[in-house]
Amino acid sequence: MTRRGGHNRGSALVFALAILGIIVTFGFAMYRFTLLESDALGDDIDRDRARWDAASGVEHAIAELQTAIGSGQVDALLKPEGVAPVSLGIYRLASTLPNSDASLIPDDRYESSASVTISDECARMNVNLAPPAVLISMLKIDGEKARQVREKLPRLDGAPASPEEGRRWLSSVDELSGLQVLAPDTLTPERVKDLTVFSALDMQNAAGYVNLNTASSAVIEAALGVTPEVAAKVIAARPLNSLDALVAATGKDPNGFNFKPAADNPSGLPRELAFSSRCFRITSTATLTRKATQDTNTATVEAVVQFPEGAAPRIVYWNEPSVGANTGK
């Protein structure tokens, strides 16, 4: 009887130890799971911080452009290296610290900066507003294809289209392929980089959306109806600031351009052409580093912003092609 009692007590002890082992193992697993979830949450927060910082870089560039447009110093911002790196302040609520209020204080756990580049959207050709002669030059298509493309878009003379025509403005250059007019190999990367749909501030009264002082050779050839050699002369003569300077560089009367002067000013500069811009593409890449671990997150935001005279800037395009690339060091 005593032996059996001792055996039962031993079995109970083994069973209790087994249960305790299971509980400890489960508790440790839950602890590890909680740590992993906490790390994942921290990574998500850092990715969001990087995205917000990239957006802050865009906002900084908008402010810089507003100042530069007002002072006529935009060219200084259009360099390939972009604007000076933007150092971004990271803040947190003081209430996250003991015995503190709800004010914002610098968060010294992070370092963050944004690299910003600005390009002139008016250096590109607006396909929504391009007449057939310009489409022929830009897309390397024949006249019939160019006319078919134009028939899918609103009329350039402002005349209303009948409802059954279904004409509408393109919202992106990629939508050109959806018109079912162009061959698949028409929109090459080399051609697409010179195209846009955003450069006109007012699609119903479009003016000054091709900046001859920043346009590429291909855009100048298409806009003015000139050879690459003449386009090179135009580029060499920049900065242009008058029609006389443009005529001298091209050796061509404005009526010979692919964009024609207005009927009420046949010897003037075509209204589509300009020597400055009010529409820019901003690319901001932010780098956020957590000091304790040296983990780095990057995020990129690309925006196209219009600057109407006497009005607030308008963001007409916003894209986040790269968000939250995490690199542990």
Describe this structure in words.
35% of the residues lie in helices and 20% in strands. It is α+β, with helices and mostly antiparallel strands. It has a domain at 30-122 and 278-327. It has a five-stranded antiparallel sheet with strand order 1-4-9-10-11. Strands 2-3 form a two-stranded antiparallel sheet. Helix 2 crosses helix 3 (143-151) and helix 5 (217-224) packs across helix 6 (228-236). The model has no long low-confidence stretch (mean pLDDT 85).
Strand and helix map with partners:
Layout: H1 2-71, E1 86-87, E2 91-93, E3 104-106, E4 110-120, E5 125-126, H2 132-139, H3 143-151, H4 189-192, E6 195-196, E7 210-211, H5 217-224, H6 228-236, H7 243-250, E8 273-274, E9 279-290, E10 295-306, E11 314-327
Parallel strand pairs: 5-6, 7-8
Antiparallel strand pairs: 1-4, 2-3, 4-9, 9-10, 10-11
Helix pairs in contact: 2-3, 2-5, 5-6
| Succession of helices and strands | HEEEEEHHHEEHHHEEEE
How would you name the oligomeric state of the polypeptide chains in this document?
Answer: single chain
Instruction: Report the count of strand segments.
Output: 11
User: How do the strands line up in the largest sheet?
Assistant: 1-4-9-10-11
Kindly state the mean pLDDT as a whole number? 85
Backbone structural class: alpha+beta
Strand content: 15-25%
Biggest sheet statistics: 5 strands, antiparallel
End-to-end Cα distance: 66 Å
Number of helices: 7
Report Rg: 31 Å
Helix share, percent: 25-40%
The low-confidence parts are none
Shape: elongated
